[in-house]
Specification:
Number of domains of chain A: 2
Helix content of chain A: 10-25%
Radius of gyration of chain A: 21 Å
InterPro entries (chains A, B): Pyridox_Oxase-rel (IPR024747), Split_barrel_FMN-bd (IPR012349)
CATH architecture of the largest domain in chain A: Roll
Order of helices and strands of chain A: HEHEEEHEEEHHHEEEEH
CATH class of the largest domain in chain A: Mainly Beta
Protein name (chains A, B): Flavin-nucleotide-binding protein
Number of helices of chain A: 7
Organism (chains A, B): Actinoallomurus iriomotensis
Largest sheet of chain A: 10 strands, antiparallel
Oligomer: homodimer
C-alpha cells in the first residue's frame, strides 16, 4: 500500500516531514492484529454496478483470515470480486496552531482480497471465530445456530495476506515551526470507546443476573475499543 | 437504498419480523443530519482500477453538501467518479439468547454521489465548514491557511441528495420467541465514545491554559460521539 493513500484528517495532501513522523505505515503482522483486536466493526467496500458501496459489518479473525458477514456481500460478491475491508479506531482530535496541521490520531487497517463464502464445517468455524471475537464467551453460552439458521447465514473469509496498517499518533506537528511563536494552545483531545453497564432485555424474567463472562468482558471505563 | 443492503451484525441474511423492527431505514433529512452531526470521521469508498478502496477521512457538512478531504480522492477522483461515504456510530453490542440473533445497535448514513473538487472561495468555505464541524471554534482561534497551504489542500463537496440512514436499536429480537424459555441472559452492552481531558503539546510553554472553547467542547464523559 502506498503510505500516502490515506486521507488523514484535517490536513491537506502535502506531506511534511513532521507529518510523516506523526503518521506511519506499518507492515508487521503484530501491528495488523493489534488493530483488528481492538474492534469488531469494519467498513466493507465492494463495487456494485461500477460504483463503490461501503457498509459497516461485524468481523472476526484468526492468524490467516478475516471473517465477515454478508447480506450485501452475498449479493454483490457472488462472482468473486475484490473487496476492501477497513478497520479504524479514532484515538484523538489533534488541535494544532494552524488549521492546516489539524488532524486525527488513529489506527487503521486495510485488507484487500477476494473473499470466499464458507460452507460446511468451515462456515460454522468462521461464525464461531466471528462470534467469539465480537462477543467472547457467547458461543458457549448462547444457543448455537440451527441448520436452518446456518443456511440463512453467509460468512466470508478474506485472506490477511494483502493488508496494511497506518497509525497517526502524538502531538501536532507545528510545535517546532514558526507557528510555535503564535502563543496558541495546541494539543490532543483523546477519544476512547467505553462500554456502559449491560442493559437487560426488558423481556427477561426479574432477577436474572448478568453472566460473569459478560460482566467481566465489559467493565465500564476499561476502554475496550470496538471502533 | 434497499433496507436490506446493510450487513448488520452477527445475525445472518434472513430478515425476521423482529429484525425489521430492530433495524429501520430512515429517509428524513433530520435523521441524516443527526447521524452526520454525531461524528467527524467517515469511511470514503472509491473505485481504483476496478477495485474498491475504503479510507477513513474527516468530514463536515452543511444543509446541502458533505465536505471531505482528499489525498486519496485527489488522485482517484480526478475524472469525476461516484463515491460512497459512510458514517457509522456503534451504539451497543446486542447479546441475544441465540447466536443467530446477536447483533449491533448502530446509526449509519450512506451518501452517494459525484464529488466536486472545490476552488477559490468555495474551497475556503468548505475547509471552514469541515474544520468547524470537527473542531468547533478552531477556525477563529488557529492560524488560517496560507495561500500555499490552501493550494496543497484538496476539499471535495458531495451533494447530500442521495443519502440513506439506517438505525438499529433496542433489545435482542428473541425475547418473545421459543428461545425466551432457555433461561439465558440477554441484553445490550451500550458503547459510547468519550473524550478525555485535552493533552497539551509538550512543546507548549508552561502554564498556557486550555482555551475555553476547547475545554467547553470536550467535557469528559459528555458523550460527544466522533464515530
Amino acid at each position: 500500500m502506498d503510505a500516502g493513500l490515506m486521507a488523514s484528517g484535517l490536513s491537506g495532501t502535502e506531506r511534511t516531514r513532521h507529518r510523516r513522523l506523526r503518521e506511519q505505515g506499518r507492515t508487521d503482522r503484530a501491528a495488523l492484529f493489534a488493530v483488528l483486536r481492538a474492534g469488531f466493526v469494519c467498513h466493507l467496500g465492494v463495487v456494485v454496478d461500477g460504483a463503490p458501496m461501503v457498509v459497516p459489518t461485524v468481523y472476526g479473525f484468526d492468524d490467516s483470515f478475516l471473517y465477515f458477514h454478508g447480506s450485501v456481500a452475498s449479493r454483490s460478491l457472488a462472482g468473486g470480486r475484490t473487496v476492501c475491508v477497513t478497520v479504524t479506531h479514532v484515538d484523538g482530535l489533534v488541535l494544532a496552531r494552524s488549521v492546516f496541521e489539524h488532524g486525527v490520531n488513529y489506527r487503521s487497517a486495510m485488507v484487500y482480497g477476494l473473499p470466499r463464502a464458507l460452507s460446511g464445517e468451515a462456515k460454522v468455524e468462521g461464525l464461531r471465530v466471528l462470534t467469539e471475537h465480537a462477543a467472547p464467551g457467547q458461543w458457549d453460552y448462547a444457543r448455537r445456530p440451527s441448520r436452518k439458521e446456518l443456511a440463512a447465514t453467509v460468512i466470508f473469509a478474506l485472506s490477511l495476506d494483502e493488508a496494511s496498517v497506518k497509525v497517526a499518533e502524538g502531538p501536532p506537528a507545528d510545535g517546532d515551526g514558526p507557528d510555535a511563536s503564535l502563543g496558541l494552545w495546541a494539543g490532543v483531545v483523546p477519544l476512547e470507546v467505553v462500554s456502559r453497564p449491560p442493559v437487560p432485555d426488558p423481556a427477561l424474567p426479574d432477577g436474572l443476573p448478568v453472566p460473569a463472562h459478560i460482566a467481566a468482558l465489559f467493565p465500564p471505563g476499561a476502554g475496550r475499543e470496538p471502533m
